[in-house]
Write a structure and sequence with these properties.
Helix content of chain A: 25-40%
CATH class of the domain at 1-42 in chain A: Mainly Alpha
Number of strands of chain A: 2
CATH superfamily of the domain at 3-250 and 397-471 in chain B: Amidase signature (AS) domain
Structural class of chain B: alpha/beta
CATH architecture of the domain at 1-42 in chain A: Orthogonal Bundle
CATH topology of the domain at 3-250 and 397-471 in chain B: Amidase signature (AS) enzymes
Largest interface: A-B, 57 and 76 residues
Strand order of the largest sheet of chain B: 1-3-2-4-6-5-10-11-9-7-8
Order of helices and strands of chain A: HHHEE
CATH class of the domain at 3-250 and 397-471 in chain B: Alpha Beta
Number of strands of chain B: 11
Strand content of chain B: 5-15%
CATH topology of the domain at 1-42 in chain A: Histone, subunit A
Radius of gyration of chain B: 21 Å
Distance between the termini of chain B: 7 Å
Radius of gyration of chain A: 22 Å
Shape of chain B: globular
Oligomer: heterodimer
Largest sheet of chain B: 11 strands, mixed
Chain lengths: 95, 482
């Protein structure tokens, strides 16, 4: 089984984990990753290029680029934790 | 018999014949939920007051001979990961506890045109990740058949509400069995349509290549009525299919396959016996039955628990404390995001996001996610080959009947195993249904699953009706129904 560092995965996933969570999740993920190792022995002649995300269709249909009715500005901001002057407000990117 | 125990077609006939009114049914349903909700906690939000006027409008349409069809005035429960404009859509997560959707899901737009009366929004495992509805941030839902047991999941609230008769039917979503497994645990019909036949627009995404909305109902005909209403191509969902249904035989000329791998280890005698009972009945009717093998099915849990978490980690990246949902402050945007996601997500959601992040990370992509995608393709090919030989595939829906609350929460893998029989249909995009067939020794429902090739949903429903008639399952949980 591949080694993994729970701290670096949590950083990639942008989730702060407590010490207890780190320990528990390391254990849980180890059990699950051990189980999925069953796939490693599988001989597969399928190329990744032949794999499609849609289980049934090879191509996803794109819509015409025509302007349609959408959410209003206010509706789009209606669930924002903080907004000002019609924009989302976030803390600074750097301290 | 009380109105709430009738089928959609029976209710519609009574409304047309002016022997009953939608408003009477609606108050009947809410009299039930007044008692059942404190016991079961099936709904997170109840809409009673809001729809009294709409119920009267339905009364008037029937009175004037202007009803809008079979679903006019029918109370339907909606899983709380499907958006109804202006209403809370929490996904049973602290992350979205105050989220009010500014738009309707396509399935809701379609049901609105038919003048459905919503009962409210139902409980689920957080972001539909789970098999018992124990992962809800707002408390678990109990099984109406025995409140010590789980109703299944993730659409446990939808199943419990129909089983307890606090809704005539319900919408659920099914990513690895989340409609069929709770339907089986609660003695109901649960139908996962062919991937792409029902729009996912407005369903909060968990694993986009696997998620599908479908009905949970008391009988197959109700499921068909709801499916007919919610299905159809939608340009708002890029994965929506614009293809006609394919007809396959469902009479005695149909060939039935029993999946060998889903009748072996890991399946309880009780679940296996239900399948054998159905097969015996079909054989007596003259159906041809043969055993078929799909070797990759044994690996479906491994494939699924790489693909679903990978997609989940990408989909749930949107919950960052900026545009909607919870925000926990931090000195910088990044710190705010980390704090928000730490506080907003529950244990199972974190587990899957981290697993998916790992499976997609540089250096491991080919080993995990890439391999799972290729294995999935091979499994789809196995199904295609089998469907050259047989029309319908039968298996148990679940390895066992419902388990007790708390029984599987400490071991995630054990919980995942309860989806062994249902996951393959999601991986292959197949239509799949669970039909209630009998009761376990502990008086808990058991179901049988039938799958068919893509786009044969209507033929599958017709065949399911034959099984439904043959087994004649009409037990109801004590205190609810009859």
């Amino acid at each position: 089984m591949s080694d993994f560092d729970i701290k670096s995965i949590a950083k990639l996933a942008s989730i702060k984990l407590s010490e207890d969570e780190q320990e528990k999740l390391t254990n849980d993920l180890s059990i699950i990753l051990e189980h999925v190792q069953a796939l490693s022995s599988l001989e597969l002649d399928t190329n990744i290029e032949d794999v499609f995300i849609h289980p049934l269709e090879k191509e996803l249909k794109l819509v015409e680029d025509i302007e349609n009715e959408s959410l209003t500005h206010d509706e789009a901001l209606s669930n924002a934790p903080e907004s000002k002057d019609g924009r989302f407000v976030v803390p600074p990117s750097m301290e | 018999m009380e109105l709430k125990n009738l089928s959609i077609r029976q209710l519609n006939n009574l409304f047309i014949e002016k022997k009953a009114k939608p408003s009477e049914l609606y108050s009947d349903i809410f009299d039930t939920s007044a008692n059942s909700e404190s016991l079961l906690h099936a709904h997170l939000t109840l809409f009673e007051e809001k729809n009294i006027e709409n119920a009267k409008n339905s009364d008037n349409r029937f009175e004037n001979g202007k009803s809008t069809g079979l679903l006019d005035g029918i109370p339907i429960a909606i899983k709380d990961n499907i958006n109804i404009k202006g209403e809370l859509t929490t996904c049973s997560s602290k992350m979205l506890s105050n989220y009010r959707s500014p738009y309707n899901a396509t399935v809701i737009e379609k049901l609105n045109k038919e003048n459905v009366l919503y009962t409210g929004k139902t409980n689920l495992d957080e972001f539909a990740m789970g098999s018992s509805t124990e992962n809800s941030a707002f408390g678990l839902t109990k099984n109406p058949w025995n409140t010590d047991y789980v109703p299944g999941g993730s659409s446990g609230g939808s199943a419990a509400s129909v089983s307890a008769r606090s809704a005539i039917g319900a919408l659920g979503s099914d990513t690895g069995g989340s409609i069929r497994q709770p339907a089986a645990f609660c003695g109901l019909v649960g139908f996962k349509p062919t991937y792409g036949t029902v729009s996912r627009y407005g369903l909060i995404a968990f694993a986009s290549s696997l998620d599908q909305i479908g009905p949970i109902t008391k009988n197959v005909d109700d499921a068909r009525i709801i499916y007919n209403s919610i299905s159809g191509h939608d340009s708002l969902d890029a994965t929506s299919i614009d293809s006609k249904q394919i007809k396959i035989p469902f009479d005695k000329s149909a060939k039935i396959g029993v999946i060998k791998e889903l009748m072996e280890d890991g399946i309880s005698d009780e679940s296996r016996n239900e399948v054998n009972k159905v097969l015996q009945g079909l054989k007596e009717q003259g159906y041809q039955i043969k055993e078929v093998s799909l070797p990759l099915i044994k690996l479906s849990i491994s494939i699924y628990y790489l693909i679903a978490p990978a997609e989940c980690s990408a989909n749930l990246a949107r919950f960052d404390g900026v545009r909607y949902g919870l925000r926990v402050e931090g000195k910088t945007s990044y710190e705010m995001m980390q704090n928000t996601r730490a506080e907003g997500f529950g244990d199972e959601v974190k587990r899957r996001i981290l697993l998916g992040t790992y499976a997609l990370s540089a250096g491991y992509y080919d080993e995990y996610y890439g391999k799972a995608l290729r294995a999935r393709k091979k499994m789809i090919d196995e199904f295609s080959n089998i469907f050259n030989d047989v029309d319908f595939l039968i298996s148990p829906t679940t390895p066992t009947a419902a388990f007790k609350a708390g029984e599987k929460t400490s071991n995630p893998l054990e919980m995942y195993m309860s989806d062994l029989c249902t996951i393959p249909a999601n991986l292959a995009g197949l239509p799949s249904i669970s039909i209630p067939t009998g009761l376990s020794n502990e008086n808990l429902p058991l179901g049988v699953q039938v799958m068919s090739k893509p786009l044969t949903d209507l033929s599958l429903l017709s065949f399911s009706e034959i099984i439904e008639k043959e087994v004649d399952f009409n037990a109801t949980p004590e205190g609810f129904g009859k």
